[in-house]
Each structure stands twice: as structure tokens, then as C-alpha cells.
Specification:
Layout lengths: L5 H19 L6 E5 L3 E5 L5 H11 L6 H13 L6 H20 L3 H21 L14 H15 L7 E6 L2 E5 L4 H16 L7
Parallel strand pairs: 2-4
Antiparallel strand pairs: 1-2, 3-4
Length: 204
């Protein structure tokens, strides 16, 4: 493991996980993905999760058809006037995921992996679209919202996953929790912007 000799990695991982539990209140299991002299990256996902996620996404390609996502969101917004547009997109994507999973015979347990990604993108959208656009009301993205979208997309594009959480410093290393699937998030984020705002996703 980079920055840690083979004989030391197990001991470092044990003490790191103890620190997370006792000092940061992290009760869910975590594992050490990698560590170097500056950073320790941990994950709640088992090895191979990212590859499995990509395999799953290939089974439900219709979920990522932009025209379908936009149409589903428009229907959801029309049926929930006055509610947040981000919530309408979120509900539409969950419904579409369930339908796609049923149509392709994908077990619900596996779909939970994609649901987590949709939930995470919803959280990003709530930050980006800070003016809180509502269904049924006239809306045009604010310049600051466009800038916020670009910043979030760049963070995903260069590998600094915006789902990553910083826990602090342990033994001189920044400790971050990583969620794989940045490419999946970029796709969802761009489609969500189009569906929610009615405008093309800003160029980055």
C-alpha cells in the first residue's frame, strides 16, 4: 500500500477504524482502500463494488435516456405544483429505476446501489439550485447556479468525487470516505439539470 509498508498496513487500518468509531462516531463498517503519506481513503463498499455498479448500469440503459428522463420529470412536476423541482426529478428517477429493474429482471437489492447514487445527486442538486425552483412556477437558472453546476461537474470530472466526506487528520494523513461512480454521477447530474431547469446543461 502506497506510503505504508506491507507489514504495517493491517495495524494502521485497525487503529484508523478505531479512531473513526471512537472519535468521529462512524459506526458503519469501513475498509481502508489505500493510503499514502498524505491521505487515507476509506470506503463502506466491498472490493469490486465499482465494477459491479458499472455492470449493473449496463443492464438498465433505458434509465439514462435523456429524453425519457426529461419527460418523466415533466410529468412529475406537473402533478406536484408548488413542490421543489429537485424532488420531482428524484421521485421520477426512483420510479423509472423500479420500472427498469422490473423490466430487465434486476433484483431490488442490486437496484439499491443505483438508488444511493440518485439520492446523492439529489443532494448535490439541492446545493447547486440554491434558489429552490418550484414546480409550476416560472424559473430561469441564476448565474450563480450555473457556476455551482460547473464547479460540481469539474470535481467529478477530475476524480475528486463530490460524494467524498472528509473526517479529519489521522497520523498526519487526511482521512476521506470515497463513493465510487463519478462517471455515473456526471451523467445523472447533466440530465437532471436539463430536466429540472428546461435548459441544456452548462458547458464545462
Amino acid at each position: 500500500m502506497n506510503g505504508i509498508r506491507d507489514g504495517e498496513s493491517d495495524g494502521f487500518e485497525r487503529t484508523l477504524l478505531d479512531w473513526l468509531r471512537e472519535e468521529r462516531g462512524v459506526e458503519e463498517p469501513r475498509r481502508l482502500v489505500r493510503a499514502d503519506e498524505e491521505e487515507a481513503l476509506i470506503s463502506k463498499f466491498e472490493p469490486g463494488f465499482a465494477a459491479g455498479l458499472h455492470d449493473l448500469l449496463r443492464l438498465i440503459p433505458d434509465l439514462f435516456d435523456e429524453a425519457t428522463a426529461v419527460a418523466n420529470t415533466e410529468r412529475a412536476m406537473a402533478s406536484t405544483p408548488g413542490e421543489p423541482r429537485t424532488g420531482a426529478w428524484h421521485a421520477a428517477m426512483h420510479a423509472a429505476l423500479a420500472q427498469a429493474g422490473e423490466g430487465h429482471g434486476v433484483p431490488d437489492l442490486r437496484l439499491a446501489e443505483v438508488r444511493a447514487g440518485i439520492d446523492s445527486v439529489r443532494a448535490i442538486l439541492d446545493v447547486i439550485l440554491w434558489s429552490d425552483p418550484r414546480c409550476g412556477e416560472v424559473y430561469e437558472p441564476e448565474p450563480g447556479e450555473v457556476d455551482a453546476y460547473r464547479e460540481a461537474f469539474v470535481e467529478l470530472d477530475d476524480g475528486r468525487d463530490v460524494f467524498t466526506r472528509y473526517y479529519g487528520t489521522f497520523e498526519g494523513r487526511a482521512v476521506r470516505n470515497h463513493c465510487p461512480g463519478a462517471a455515473f454521477a456526471r451523467m445523472l447530474l447533466a440530465q437532471a439539470w436539463r430536466a429540472i431547469t428546461g435548459t441544456p446543461a452548462p458547458t464545462v
